[in-house]
Amino acid sequence: MKLNRMHGFSIRSIIRLEIRWRYNHMSNKVLKPKKASLYQFTQNYSNNIGNCIEFFKSMKWPGEFSCDRCGCHKYYLVKRVGKTKTSYVLECSSCHKQHSLLSGTIFQSCKLDLYKLLLGVFLFLNENKGISAINLCSILDVNHKTALLLENKCRILCH
Ligand SMILES: [Zn+2]
Where is the Transposase zinc-ribbon domain (predicted)? Predict the structure, then answer.
């Protein structure tokens, strides 16, 4: 089963791999086996939106942020409060182009807050055979359709 191939890879490596693939950047970096603990995960990300943002930012821009219009490395973080979720964009401090944290990645249409998204992906990828949409529903407190979409995206990450 293909899912087994990713067993032991860190969530960070997998998401980075996917995002790089979407951006047509190939990486020869060897993925090191690493399984994270749920305790450590919650210590790092629960009630810490700054760390969640930093996680997705470092996935999309390994190293440092770079504006794709002018190349500037400085940005302002802009919070967008929507009906279903709060999202964040990085606005270039030079040309003011706004860069979504998730656009261009497999999660760009995701209707989950960053922490819920990260937790769902973590739970899925940290299990050998993933986690079912039913379980994601109750753990993340989301409806079945949202959980199913997330589960499907996680499965794509594993292929
Ligand atoms: Zn710019």
Answer: 51-98
